[in-house]
Amino acid sequence: MREEGSYEIDRKVVIALIKKALGRLEGVYAIKRGLFGERVKVKQPGEKIRISLELIIKEGSSIPQVVEETQKEITEEIQKTLNRAVDRVDIKIKKIKAIS
């Protein structure tokens, strides 16, 4: 039974916020896509959000720096927009894209 005034955030909303945050980063090329769309897992146990995503980064980027900036931007965007705490953002680098 739900409390009066409670609400649920759809996974698609969280993914849209993730894409918005990634758009501000230089080293990220794209979110890795699978058969059923982007490879992003969103779990919402309680009041915190856990995110796991697979990225393609641009060649020449510093992976540790890209990961740190990505985690920071996603966390800030979700906290600002949804007023929900982010438990963690797990990132798997799946590919490096050569940009000419």
Please provide a brief summary of the model.
By secondary structure, this protein is α+β, with helices and mostly antiparallel strands. Helices cover 32% and strands 36% of the residues. The protein has a single domain (27-97), classed as Cation efflux protein, cytoplasmic domain (Alpha-Beta Plaits, 2-Layer Sandwich), CATH 3.30.70.
What does the model show?
The protein is of the alpha+beta class and 100 residues long. The protein has a single domain (27-97), classed as 2-Layer Sandwich (Alpha-Beta Plaits). It has helices at 11-22, 63-82; strands at residues 28-31, 33-34, 37-38, 40-43, 48-58, 85-97. The strands form 2 sheets. Strands 1, 4, 5 and 6 form a 4-stranded mixed sheet that branches. A two-stranded antiparallel ribbon has the order 2-3. β2 and β3 (37-38) form a beta hairpin. It is globular. The N and C termini lie far apart (55 Å). The mean pLDDT is 88.
